[in-house]
Write a structure and sequence with these properties.
The structure holds 2 protein chains of 2 kinds. By secondary structure, chain A is mainly α. Chain A is 85% helix and 0% strand. The radius of gyration of chain A is 18 Å and the shape is elongated. The mean pLDDT of chain A is 87. Chain B has 3 helices and no strands. In chain B, α1 runs antiparallel to α2 and α2 runs antiparallel to α3. Chain B is flat. Classes of the chains: A mainly alpha, B mainly alpha. Chains A and B meet through α1, α2 and α3 of A and α1, α2 and α3 of B.
């Protein structure tokens, strides 16, 4: 029963990985590519780690430490990267999207 | 069944690798590198169950740490002059 649950979680996580890769390949813009890649791969890696914890219950502590580590570090690095990309490549995003929230916060 | 799981992870790693090779700007490549390090970390977790060795989990931990530090360093490098 636990193995069956593990397979369901594992294939859900791998489907999220595949969606993340497809979005990274097909999206038209750098920031939209970032939005497609980071969120889906974070949730996918958490689901795959949970699936392995269902397969092998002795390794649960180590896997939970790894999952918490990924859950802490991945949003930090992706938000830092998005902010740097915005500062460097999107000087006039207001002309295309009609809103620029980060500039309003800065000034 | 587990072989099919590993094959699907490798396929999505290949999709990210295509974006890494043909990204127009440097930011695209750094995003692809970040996503690739996370997918490779969970591929290492699956491989540690596939070979029944608990040692590979430590390798996955160190790999995730190296990927995080590399992404942060590249973001700070993009922030300065290029």
């Amino acid at each position: 029963m636990l193995v069956f649950l593990g397979y369901i979680l594992g294939f859900l996580g791998v489907a999220l990985f595949f969606i993340s890769g497809l979005g990274l390949l097909r999206m038209p813009d750098t920031l939209t590519r970032m939005q497609a890649a980071t969120k889906a791969s974070t949730l996918g890696s958490l689901l795959v780690i949970l699936a392995i914890a269902c397969f092998e219950p002795q390794w649960t502590f180590k896997l939970i430490v790894l999952a918490v580590f990924i859950l802490i570090t991945n949003p930090i690095s992706s938000s830092l990267l998005a902010m740097t990309t915005y500062k460097r490549f999107y000087k006039n995003i207001y002309n295309t999207s009609g809103t620029d929230a980060l500039k309003g916060e800065d000034k | 069944m587990l072989n099919f799981l590993i094959l699907l992870i490798a396929l999505s790693l290949l999709l990210v690798l295509i974006r890494f090779l043909k990204g127009p700007t440097l930011a695209d490549r750094v995003v692809a590198f970040d996503s690739m390090s996370i997918i490779a970390t969970s591929l290492l977790v699956v491989l540690s169950f596939y070979f029944h060795k608990s040692l590979y989990l430590d390798v996955a931990f160190v790999f995730g740490l190296i990927g995080f530090v590399g992404t942060v360093v590249f973001a700070k490098f993009l922030d300065k002059e290029l």
